[in-house]
Design brief:
- With about 210 residues, this protein is mainly α.
- The protein contains 9 helices and no strands.
- The chain folds into 2 domains: about 130 residues, Tetratricopeptide repeat domain (Serine Threonine Protein Phosphatase 5, Tetratricopeptide repeat), CATH 1.25.40; about 60 residues, no CATH class.
- Helix 3 packs parallel to helix 5, helix 5 packs antiparallel against helix 6 and helix 7 runs parallel beside helix 9.
- It starts with a helix and ends with a helix.
- About 5% of the residues have low confidence.
Length: about 210
């Protein structure tokens, strides 16, 4: 009897391990594809991959995070403002689902802060004040949850660099934020191979440009 119970336990453990390995493998492949995507269609394809993974792994927030990220990237590629908003609506949908799973995750609030400037770019005059305030709230929450999240510092640096000097922006104000982000990126260690780990190279390139 004891032997039978032992065998059953081992089978259950091996089954869980296999399922976890399959999830990790699928995520790694999709993440690699995401960060090598260039076109709207490529981003759309990988967003669909993450959505399929999320339907199989309903307790995991990471597939929804990357699906949302994919649609934000699509919005940068799209030239039609009406379509941009539709893509960002989809990004928000996935982000909301991820937050319902993991409501206290710094990376999700950072991604929310990343989504709002995309809304602003569609109509800066009419949307600037509203979404800038929302972005700052989201980033403050991201830092509260993880003061060492380098992507928050990078996003703040980018927004500052692109803001008119009259409103507290410009290269001089952005430089220390880029430098702070670089320090945080050097120390940052993701929780796993599939957790967010992007931004270091982009920050380094932007820092180099702003120092010239």
């Amino acid at each position: 009897m004891k032997k039978s119970v032992f065998i059953l336990v081992m089978l259950l453990i091996s089954g869980v391990s296999f399922a976890n390995d399959a999830y990790q493998s699928a995520m790694k492949k999709a993440i690699d594809k995401l960060f090598n995507s260039q076109t709207i269609q490529e981003y759309m394809d990988v967003a669909n991959q993450f959505e399929r993974i999320s339907t199989m792994e309903k307790k995991e927030w990471l597939p929804l995070y990357y699906a949302s990220f994919s649609y934000i990237m699509i919005s940068f590629k799209e030239t039609d403002n009406a379509k941009k908003d539709q893509y960002l609506d989809q990004a928000q949908k996935y982000l909301d689902q991820a937050m319902s799973i993991q409501p206290n995750e710094s990376e999700l609030f950072m991604l929310q802060g990343f989504l709002y400037p995309s809304r602003i770019n569609i109509d800066p005059i009419n949307r600037g004040m509203t979404y800038m305030g929302k972005m700052n709230v989201a980033l403050e929450k991201a830092l509260e949850l993880n003061p060492d999240n380098p992507r928050v510092y990078y996003l703040r640096a980018t927004m500052t660099a692109n803001m008119p000097e009259a409103y507290g922006g410009g290269a001089a104000k952005a430089l220390p934020l880029y430098q702070k982000a670089a320090e945080k990126f050097e120390l940052f260690k993701p929780k796993s191979e599939i957790h967010p780990n992007w931004g270091k190279d982009i920050n380094a390139n932007d820092l180099q440009k702003i120092q010239k």
